[in-house]
Amino acid sequence: MFEVKIDLKNSGIEQKEIMEYSKTVESIHKELNERADKEDDFVGWLKLPSKYDKEEFNKIKKSAEKIVENSEVLVVIGIGGSYLGARAVIESLTNTFYNMLPYKKRKHPQILYVGNNLSPNYINDLIEIIGDRDFSINVISKSGTTTEPAIAFRIFREMIENKYGIEEAQRRIFVTTDKQRGALKTLADEEGYETFVIPDNIGGRYSVLTAVGLLPIAVAGIDIDKLMEGARVAQYKYEDSKLKYNECYQYAVARNILYKSEKNIEILVNYEPKMHFFTEWWKQLYGESEGKEKKGIFPAGVEFTTDLHSMGQYIQDGRRNLFETVINIKEPNSNILINSDENNLDGLNYLAGKELDYVNKKAMEGTVEAHISGDVPNIMINMQKLNEETIGHLIYFFEKACAVSGMILGVDPFNQPGVEEYKKNMFKLLEKPGYNN
Ligand code: PA5
Fold first, then answer.
1. Which of 39, 104, 309, 420 is an active site residue?
2. Residue 29 is part of a domain; what is its CATH number?
3. Catalytic residue chosen out of the listed positions 30, 330, 423, 424
4. Which of 27, 95, 249, 314 has its CA 20 to 30 A from that of 123?
5. Structural domain boundaries, residue 248
6. What is the pTM of this model?
């Protein structure tokens, strides 16, 4: 039921081209497995679904219950890998307008995100939206020193302390960070906040299935046991070192083959707006993992049919350096029947009796065909339904494929040296101590 199946038949790649990578992939497979248990490496995510810390997991559930009981809003502070995963899962698996539902109907706190930009407008608007409602804070930062979340935490800590007083504020602040390093850890220990650990050997963008993602996800009422179960099924499914039987590795190889044939932009395509932030998460995962040493596929994302009316023209007819990876969710969670209309003034009676998802699927089939004929190779990722298990599965699929793909490309998929450049300049301009000319 929560199978994810990859289909390469319209990728323009022959099976034998894929199989030429067998040895390379087997050696990467071996290397990843050897590195998975090392505390001082970044491959801890590989076996996480089958060996996560159960005590920490239960603590996450308990804290989530507490937040649900006493808060109408959870303010999630974090950026990049400390933000996108939680939002991706929450938005994929809740009502599209979750945050706008009346509290009585939602029965879980509104989830609002901050610390992912430096806009005063954004923060002021958020404060206005929270109003005088009860709220808690989950601040997430592995390094504990990232500027955007640090500034946001300073602002919201002051706000929560002013509202509830120091002691109650302490009970409403939840900190997810490194187990011993960083300013946030020091602050949390000093103030006695509840803390959750981001394992040393899991980097930000591979951390959604740790407390980083799981606490906000659980607060939104999503079943984190099922999410982990989906990831666990994926872990076992993609454990096979043989490329022939491992679809996750086939996706990694296919991307590299396309890249070598000058297809250096991959567009992740969705026909489900709920998946918008899943695409954002995917973009960060692949962009930060592979874009280095002047190499890498540029990861882009579109939502169809919306973007067929904006980006569709370029994809069909612009520069031919693109390929598409389409996520096809076979069954929608709900459907709408199109009724017949007596006057048929809109000319839509030819669709009467059909359901809306049928139209969406025909749009997808027609678009795939058009783009293939426009020389845009296509990779399909088919999943039965959108639920906790399939999302857990898909997360693991993309994480593992990303690591393997980066290693085939010859880059380190677990570092992000390029991100430091803007920080150095910004700190110099801000006259941060230690960053003088
Ligand atoms: O994937 C990564 O490592 C980054 O995107 C980080 O998650 C991001 O920079 C935030 O870092 P931190 O969690 O240390 O605040």
1. 309
2. 3.40.50.10490
3. 423
4. 95
5. 4-34+228-409
6. 0.97
